[in-house]
Amino acid sequence: MTTEKPHRLRTFRNRIAASPDAILVLVVLVIFMDMLIYGLLIPVFPQYAPRLGVGESVIGIIFGVYAAMLLLFSIPMGLLSDRVGRRPLIVAGMLLLALATALFGFSTTITHLVAARTVQGVSAAATWSAGLALLADTCDPARLGEKMGVALSAVGVGTILGPVAGGLLFEYAGYTATFLIPAALAASVGLAVLAVPVRTCRRESGARRSAMMPGGALLPLAACAVVIVAVSGTYGVFDPYLPVYLHTVFSASPATIGFVFAVLAVAAILAQPVAGRIYDRYGGSRYLIGGGLLLSGGAIVAAMQAGALPLTAVAVFVLGIALSCALVPTMPLLADIYRDHGSQGAAYGMYNTFFAVGLSAGPFAGAILAGRWPLPAIFLLLAGFLGVTGILSWLAVGKLAWR
Questions:
Q1: Rounded to whole angstroms, how far apart are CA atoms 291 and 160?
Q2: How far out from the chain centre does Cα 351 lie?
């Protein structure tokens, strides 16, 4: 009797460890927490920053530090997860996220804020690279597209709930509690990952190092990079400049602008798992990627031509679906490139790096063009870029013979 219960507990824990669905839940929780806390700053920081004497330019820098750290650390963290295993990186990333979030709550200087944002970006590089690699390690390749789509849907949910939670906590609990409560939640998720016996891939000390550029991978990797940068760059342009356009053209209030962005996020939440399932069952990467980019360009043109705000919201909804269709297939494709080399950490370190490049370049490109062209012209230029990229992707997918 004394040994039967521990044996049953070990059996139950091993069953959890062997379940790809349990691992999917853990990865979704990790990604959701990262995006939830990322979004907390959006309604809170502009109200609190003036107390520290922080101007608009400094606010931009503090927000940009996250993308910069994601850009710098994603590949190193992915490679490190290939060496030491996925779970240690995920747990460390979540505990760093908790630390960074708590630091925001106690920040009294600009230096504290920049340090907190820096740690938050490093934690995201660790959790995203190792978490997505863990999915690729444990999921049946025939269902990887759908699983990745579900994981990415957590981004949309966190994007929607983060600003809402931040605004409510700030209003009713105060600045410090706004960050201490999510910090405790992030630490709890990290401890949950530590508690579940996740079986992860880890290279032995004498094993060959992870291949950053497997043989014959240059062209497919470059094609994935172009698609990912195009999609994230679109978000990078829309996030700062669509609110300005909506306010200028339709006199949209902050609540209305938030609704339009919620429409974009909901479209991604709905479309990403469906796009992944379609890819898993039928392939069709040419139609999903090339067609998705072409449709994205068309949706932006429609948004610029819309004479009423509801029509613009419909076009934004279509844009969210189209961008999701283009992005999701790149994730199983990256897994295929690196699978035979045991380097899934490197694969999703690459994915995060490409995404961060577009997310960082989009606002800067928009800032350069905004001084010369009106916003509608900038959005139409973006539409043209997506259209050309869609055509090139259509041709490249055919040449690479992707399924």
A1: 27
A2: 10
The predicted structure's pLDDT at residue 215:
64
- The CA distance from 395 to 350, in Å, is 23
- Separation CA 361–CA 234 (nearest Å): 10
Q: Which amino acid is at 252?
A: A
**Encoding tokens for residue 301?**
């043109």
Q: Which domains does the chain have, with CATH numbers?
A: 1-202 (1.20.1250.20), 215-403 (1.20.1250.20)
Q: How does pLDDT run across 329-364, given as a tens digit for each residue?
A: 999 999 888 876 667 888 899 999 999 899 888 878
Instruction: State which H helix or E strand residue 334 sits in.
Output: helix 330-339
Q: Is 314 exposed, middle or buried (0-12, 13-18, 19+ CB in 10 A)?
A: middle
C-alpha to C-alpha distance for 66 and 125, rounded to whole angstroms: 10
Spatial CB neighbours of 342, under 8 Å, sequence gap ≥ 6: 82, 201, 203, 207, 210
Residue type, 240: P
Report the pLDDT value the prediction gives residue 342, as an integer from 0 to 100: 62
- For the segment 308-332, the average pLDDT, to the nearest whole number, is 96
Residue 200 pLDDT class (50, 70, 90 cuts): low
Q: How many CA atoms lie within 13 A of 162 on its CB side?
A: 22
DSSP state of 347: H
Q: By three-state DSSP, how is residue 340 classified?
A: coil
Q: In 107-217, which ranges are continuous DSSP H helix?
A: 110-138, 144-173, 175-195
Q: What is the pLDDT of residue 57?
A: 57
Q: Which range, 37-41, 66-70, 106-110, 183-187, has the best average confidence (pLDDT)? A: 183-187
Q: Which of 135, 138, 149 has the alpha carbon at shortest distance from 279? A: 149
User: Which residues does 107 contact at the CB level (< 8 Å), separation at least 6?
Assistant: 52, 113, 116
Closest CA relative to residue 324, chosen from 288, 356, 360, 371: 288
Tell me the whole-structure pTM to 2 decimals: 0.84
Task: Indicate the Cα dihedral angle 189, 193, 194, 196, nearest 10°.
Answer: 130
Distance from C-alpha of 47 to C-alpha of 387, rounded to nearest angstrom: 39
At 339 the pLDDT is 78
